[in-house]
Specification:
The protein has helices spanning about 45-55, 60-100, 105-115, 120-125, 140-185, 190-195, 200-240, 240-250, 250-290, 290-295, 300-325, 330-350, 360-400, 460-465, 490-495, 510-515, 520-530, 535-540, 560-570, 590-600, 635-645, 645-660; strands at about 10, 420-425, 435-440, 445-450, 475-480, 480, 495-500, 505-510, 550, 575-580, 605-610, 620-625, 630-635. About 40% of the residues are buried. Helix 2 packs antiparallel against helix 13 (about 360-400). The longest helix has about 50 residues, at about 140-185. A 7-stranded mixed sheet has the order 1-7-10-11-4-12-13, sandwiched between helices. It has a 4-stranded antiparallel sheet with strand order 3-2-5-6, with no helix packed on it. The protein is an alpha/beta fold.
Length: about 650
């Protein structure tokens, strides 16, 4: 099998909090001090809102088009009441004119009303263009109604186009945000995932982004229309009656005060709501993943109680957020109704005094409704905006997380597999040192076994070689090249890895094996499967290599899953091989066969083997015994047994326990 560079081989990247032999590291950020848990700091609404709106900048052309159509639609809509007011005035003028004797002039009718002492009626007649003896001009009213109908139809079309373009801009921006988050996750160090519950991270990537999408889609168009409507209606109100317009403006500061007071309170509650959502999702994900263990140990009641507590916290936070933000609508309705009453009273007095036509009063009352309605909508949408910005802030926290160090431009070239650890220092936490001044050399073609008690640093050593974590000090070289000077992808493409926890994705067995080298032929896939004894059980399955494995891999055994991951590494034909207790899930008979395959796989390449069962690494060229992050012994199996040290004690403890059993 020729050496090829391709996708990193092996079972899977190491999952958060799933090391084979070590306790999880302290909850920390990516190498830069204690990590702030989501929701611990107060939400910065304005900064987060500005940043969220900044995400829309690439769509500014669409937004400008939407604004133009919005202006056109609102302008046509706000002209309608004024024109309808003219129809009302014509109707009243025709009704009054018909009541007067034919041949009477307009001036004489007004004078007659004054002589009769009915000054209010005289003032009303002065505002009307009536013809005594002539009834309602239905033709003129009909033309007005047709004109208004056409204006409203055009306004509706313009509003539809505006909403369509704006929603397209929002969805394009959310699509871009999802791509940014996906790319960000690829750039985050493993330490970030160690510090984040998977359910919490999934909640940010799915629930929070969906909430941002819904918030922008529901509020942006309405906010734009509401603001344009307020400006348009305000212009028309000042045109009709500056005095009444000033009265209507009294509701604006009241609305602003209410929005500010309620908004500050609800923002904290929405932040707590989405934090509780993430916690609940994390618990559900963990309980579902380990549901078998939960049942085996009879912990259903405890898990259910934890769910109840988290669900209760989510209920309290969500209820509080919705209750507080929901106060905006009734408060604004009360303010709007009071404003309506005041305008109706003053407008009626001005009609009676002859300073306004009844049509203008009708139009103004309609405008007052149109003026308070968008203010009420803005207030009611504030709770949606608060919720969306709270979710956006959680997404931005993910996007702002410290990334892996930039990729260098170096190259490994053709590898022989000469690996050296030179004065390597590393710790998960500055307060607790793990590896200090470690030196190690693995010559080309050697099989290096790493043994030691749980927490000794065995898997950490491998993680450092894979550059899942960066060193605190020292260097790791491959054929004399510092691995920190080459891109991670190039480094990992030369390393095959099989973990203790087998990882398979939803797909066929063929696809899972080919993951080690995507350009492999059918013959090469079958060859790898045969060499690792996958071919033996595949033919017992109904669809053979086309058998679809679900995401949990529940339709095949644990040993069969492990064999598939070994076949994956075999197919990749890497320059360096890492086996982390790779045969732990295989039965004893199959283990002997797999050991033969692994021996063939290790032939001619440097291999690191993490082993708990010491019987599996007797033929290793070099055995390292680790304790507390340091190599305390090294040598061959026979040499270490003869030394009667730590390795001898480990070996004897395993076999004496077996005999006792």
């Amino acid at each position: 099998m020729s050496k090829k560079t391709g996708t990193p081989a092996g079972a899977a990247p190491i999952k958060a909090n799933e090391r084979s032999d070590e306790a999880p590291p302290p909850r920390r950020g990516p190498g830069h001090g204690p990590m702030v848990a989501p929701g611990e700091k107060a939400a910065n609404f304005r900064a987060s809102l500005r940043r969220l709106l900044h995400e829309l900048r690439p769509q500014r052309a669409r937004i400008i088009i939407a604004i133009l159509f919005g202006v056109a639609g609102v302008a046509l809509a706000v002209v309608g009441p004024k024109i309808l007011g003219e129809a009302t005035t014509l109707l009243l003028a025709g009704f009054i004119g018909k009541q007067m004797p034919l041949g009477t002039t307009r001036a004489s009718a007004i004078q007659a009303a004054e002589n009769a002492g009915n000054q209010d009626f005289a003032d009303l007649l002065r505002t009307l263009d009536f013809v005594p003896g002539q009834g309602v001009d239905f033709e003129a009213i009909g033309m007005i109604l047709i004109t208004v109908l056409v204006l409203y139809l055009i306004s509706g079309v313009a509003s539809y186009v505006q909403a369509y373009v704006l929603n397209d801009a929002v969805q394009q921006s959310i699509h871009r945000m999802r791509r940014q988050v996906s790319a960000k996750i690829d750039r985050l160090p493993l330490s970030y995932f160690d510090a984040q519950p998977r359910g919490e991270l999934l909640s940010r990537v799915t629930n929070d982004i969906d909430n941002v999408s819904q918030t922008l889609q529901q509020t942006l168009s309405q906010l734009l229309n509401s603001l344009l409507m307020v400006l348009g209606v305000l212009f028309m109100m000042f045109w009709i009656s500056p005095t009444l317009a000033l009265v209507a403006l009294v509701s604006v500061p009241v609305a602003m005060v209410m929005v500010t007071i309620i908004g500050k309170r609800s923002q904290k509650l929405f932040k707590a709501q989405w934090k509780a959502t993430g916690d609940l999702n994390a618990h559900i994900e963990e309980a579902y993943t380990g549901h078998s263990l939960v049942k085996v140990f009879g912990r259903q009641k405890e898990v259910a109680e934890q769910f109840r507590q988290r669900n209760q916290r989510l209920y309290e936070a969500a209820f509080g957020a919705q209750f507080v933000s929901g106060l905006m609508m009734p408060i604004m309705m009360i303010v709007g109704n009071l404003n309506y009453v005041v305008i109706a009273v003053i407008g009626g007095l001005r009609v009676a005094s002859g300073t306004m036509t009844i049509g203008d009063v009708q139009a103004f009352i309609q405008y007052s409704r149109q003026f308070t309605q968008p203010l009420t909508q803005v207030a009611s949408m504030a709770n949606l905006m608060q919720s969306g910005v709270a979710s956006a802030e959680r997404v931005f926290e993910l996007m702002d997380a410290d990334e892996m160090t930039p990729e260098p431009a170096g190259s490994l070239g053709e590898l022989n597999g000469h690996v050296k650890f030179e004065q390597v220092d590393f710790s998960y936490s500055p307060e607790q040192s793990l590896i200090t001044g470690l030196n190690l050399e693995a010559k080309p073609g050697q099989t290096v076994a790493i043994v030691g008690p749980t927490g000794a640093g065995k898997t950490t050593l491998v993680n450092l070689l894979m550059r899942f974590y960066d060193l605190d000090g020292g260097a790791i070289t491959m054929d004399g090249t510092d691995i920190a000077t080459v891109p991670r992808q190039e480094l990992r493409s030369n390393i095959g890895m099989v973990l203790q926890d087998a990882w398979l994705f939803g797909g066929t067995i063929r696809d899972n094996i080919a993951y080690g080298r995507m350009d492999a032929t059918e013959e090469e896939i079958v060859e790898a499967a045969t060499a690792t004894f996958v071919d033996r059980f595949v033919h017992s399955l109904p669809d053979g290599y086309d058998t679809v494995i679900d995401e949990e891999g529940s339709n095949i055994s644990a040993g069969e899953k492990q064999l598939i991951t070994i076949a994956r590494a075999f197919l990749a034909d890497p320059s360096l091989l890492i086996l982390d207790e790779a045969t732990s899930s295989v039965d004893t008979r199959t283990e002997l066969l797999v050991q033969q395959a692994m021996s063939a796989l290790r032939s001619g390449r440097t291999s690191f083997v993490i082993a708990h069962r010491l019987s599996t690494i007797r033929d290793a060229d070099l055995i390292l015994v680790m304790e507390d992050g340091a190599i305390v012994e090294q040598g061959t199996h026979d040499e270490l047994l003869a030394a009667s040290g730590a390795y001898h004690d480990l070996y004897e403890s395993q076999f004496s326990a077996a005999v006792t059993t």
